[in-house]
Amino acid sequence: MAEVIHPEDELRVIDWNLLLETAMEMKNAGLRLSQACVSYVAGKYELVYSFVNDETYKLTNVKVIMETTDWIPSICAFYPYALFYENEMKELYGVDVRMMEGTDLNNKLYRIRETTPLLPKEKK
Amino acid sequence: MGKRKVVPFGPQHPVLPEPIHLDLVMEDEKILEAVPNIGFVHRGLEGLIEKKDFNELIYIAERTCGICSYQHGMGYTETLEQIMGVEIPDRAKFLRSTWSELGRLHSHLLWLGLLADGFGFESLFYECWRIREKILDLHELTVGARLIFSVNKVGGVLRDITPEMQKTILETLDVVEEEVKNIQKTFLYDYSVQSRLKGIGVLSLQQVHDLGCAGPFARASGLNLDMRKLGYDAYPYIDFEPIISTDGDCFARCDVRTREIFQSIDIIRQIFAKMPEGDIAVPVKGMPNGEATVRIEQPRGEAVYYVKGNGKKLLDRMRIRTPTFANLPGLLETMKGADLSDVPLLILSIDPCISCTER
What dotted CATH number matches B48-350? Predict the structure, then answer.
C-alpha cells in the first residue's frame, strides 16, 4: 500500500488589514499559494487564499470578508505569481486590489468586453 | 549589448493548439523577458452558477477542458460530496480512479505527440496519437463516449466496468505498454530528440517551489508532489510513488510523463486486481450547504476546486483553479535567456491547456 497523507485542512478568517501580515507568515513558513479566488455572498466579497505545505500537503484557507467598497493590498511582494489571481479577482468581480505596481494588467488579463462579468447584475 | 526588439508570438502559431500570445523582449536571439496575454477565449463557465443547479454544473465542469474533462467533473463532484458529507461506495471510488488513470494515459500520449510535432518529428507524432486512439476506444467501451464522459454524479458514478470490459482493458493496455516502450526509446535515447530537449528551459527545485508550479512540470525539477498521495478514491489501496526527475529541463519533463504512462497502466492493473464488488452509487438527498476545497492530481498537475453552497439549488461559487494557471509563471521563467527557436518547446513543456485556464 502507498503511504497516504491525510492532513487536516485549516480555515482562518481574518480582517482585510491582516492580509499582508498573514501572507508574510505563510511565505516564511515555506507555504505555496495554491489558489486565490473571490465569491460575492450576501452583498460582500469573500476572498479565499489557499496556502499549501508541499511536504505535509496541509492546506490552509485564509478567508477575508470585506465590503465591496473596501480595498485589499496585493500580496505579490511575497507571492509574485499571485498577480494572475489578483488580476482575475479585479477583472471578473471588481475587487479593489491596490499596491499592484508592476503587476496590474489593467483589466486585460482576460479580453472580456463586459466589466466585472461575474458580479450579479443588481450589484453592478 | 545587442539591439533590443519585441517579437510577438501567437495567438495563432503552428505549434499552439490553443491561443496564447507572448510578447518576447529579445536581445539578438536571446529572450530577456516574456509578457503573456491570455483571455482570447474566456468562456465564463464559473458564472453559470447563476443559471445551472449544482447537479447540472457537473456537466459544465466537465466542459472546462476537452482533455482532462473527466477529472474536472470528478473533482467538482467530490467537492460537493465533501460539503454534503456523502461517502460513496468503494466500487465507485475504484471506478473513478480507473477513468482518472485512463484520462492520464490519453492526455500524456496526446502531449508526447504534440511535443514530437514541436521538434519536427512527424512520424513520432502520428505514432503517439495512433496509440492514444486505443485509449479513447477504451473510454468509448466503458462510458459510450470518447472524451466527455458524463459519468459522475453526487453519490457515485452512473456506469460500471464489467469483468468483460476489464479483460478488454487489460489486454489493450498490454499492447499499449509494449508500443509505448518503443516510442519511449525514441523520446529518451534518440540523439536528435535529446539535442532538442536536453538543457532547455531548466528550472531548479527552488524555482518551481517559489513559482507555485504543479504536476509533471514541477516533478521534473525534483518536487515530490502528487495530489494522489492525499488518498482520495482508490489511491489509498494502490502502491505507487510520485515519479520525479531532478534535471528540470524539457527532457526531464518528457521523461517524467513517459514514465507516468507506465505508472498509470500499473495503477489500473492494481485497481482491477483489488476492485470490490458492490453498489456504484448511494442515494443523496438535500442541497449543498457550506464550503469545501478539494485538490486532485490531473494529468497536468494539481487542480483545485472550491465550492460554496447556500442550501439551495444554485451555488454561491464554483471555482476551478487549473494546473496550467499555476504553471504559467514557471513557463515565463523558462523563457528568460532562451533562444527564440526553443519557445515552442518551452510552451509545450508545461503541457498548456488554455481552454482550462480560460474556464
Answer: 1.10.645.10
